[in-house]
Amino acid sequence: MQLKQSIYFHSPIFLQNILTTIYGRVLYQERYGPVYQKRLQELKEKERFQTNAQAEQLARLNQFLLFCQTYSPYYQELFEQHRITLPLETLDELKQIPILSKEILRTRNADVHAKIRAPILGKTGGTTGKSIQVHYTKEDMQIRMAHLDYFKWTHGIERGMRRASFTGQTLAAESQKAPVYWRMNKAINQMLFTIKNINPQTAALYIEQLNRFNPESIDGLPSGMIEVARHAKKYNIPCTFRPKAIFPTAEMMTAAERQLIEEVFHAPIFDQYASSEGAPIVAECRYGKKHLHYEMGIIEVEEDGQILVTSFDTHGTPLVRYRVGDRMTLSEATCQCGHAGPVIASIDGRGRSFIQLKDGHRIFEGELAGIVRAFPNCIERVQYIQSDKEEIVMLYVPDERCFKEEHEKELYFVLKRLFGGQMEVLLRAVPEIPKEISGKTLLIKQLLLEKS
Ligand SMILES: [Zn+2]
């Protein structure tokens, strides 16, 4: 969109809708081509057969490793050094290949890249701004889209159905006077709602527009959904739309937030994990279990809970045993839905979302998100900021109708205890949690220098 941005923002809204649709058509061709069609069909047909997930993974792994050896100077050298002979005979032999750390991917970026055309650039990086370039081929993208659409299809959603998406993109120019914070992408019948303009003054307008559009599915950034749902509930504004399913992306939600969205938007949430760095997709089935889409790759879990991803559809920047920075717990459970992929018990933390204690201990999102539950309804949102080894700043948005002074004291004691008395805690009441440039609202803002 970059090149066209100056034209877009100088156009009237009706023209912006047309430009959105034109851009949507360009993406359509890129994303829903023959490779997409073929994979989606395969996945749908597979439901009727018993499949041997491990045999299929091994075959796909060998094909991918051979590609890495042929086209990426980094892997060529690495396999030679460590005497890796292809094809591997078992999945276990994958452990012979050394781990790819972020540091290696950053410093040897050009060597890791495969010598093929991979025009799609993945956005990665995180809060410190040290971004890492990851490239994809068009085919890689189509495979990802096929798996995402297959996931939605298992929950009754097909492409072309009315879709509302909460996006971090800026859609309204700063000079725009009309309170219209959504644009229509007719190419796939999708209404985009920018989360950058959601605030207590505009939230009711978002609800009105959702009611008018009556989406069959809702997806995108949950922080936007949470703000709108909370506003509807607080002021008793009816949501008359009745989607079949809601698919949040990219951020963690607390159990309470999930419940809130499901209640106010009248539909079940099905969660997914798909990092922008190209990890294979993990998605919830109709029984609420999280399955690895094993056709896309392999996830190993290290002792400390960090995951290593090997992602078969990263032909631009091949990822083999990449320590992506996220954490999961695997499960031995099987699931009655019949999906052959391994079950993931939980996704425990994404990236740098943790508080670092002085003794080296880390406290992850899951634990922190639970704290506010002890203060029913009188705290709307919180954010933990760590920019110092000794001190945590907690911003919170009190519900002015029921928040009392003693709540702040209680909060202080609960946090002191959680941090084992190692950290100073500063509490600050704010009217809103500031948004990031991306439009997201973070639960934890980790500003200490990245070490790994
Ligand atoms: Zn299942």
From TrEMBL:
Signal peptide: none
Domain of life of the source: Bacteria
Gene3D superfamilies: N-terminal domain of ligase-like
InterPro entries from the UniProt entry: ANL_N_sf (IPR042099), CapK_Type1_Caps_Biosynth (IPR053158)
Identification of the protein by name: Coenzyme F390 synthetase-like protein
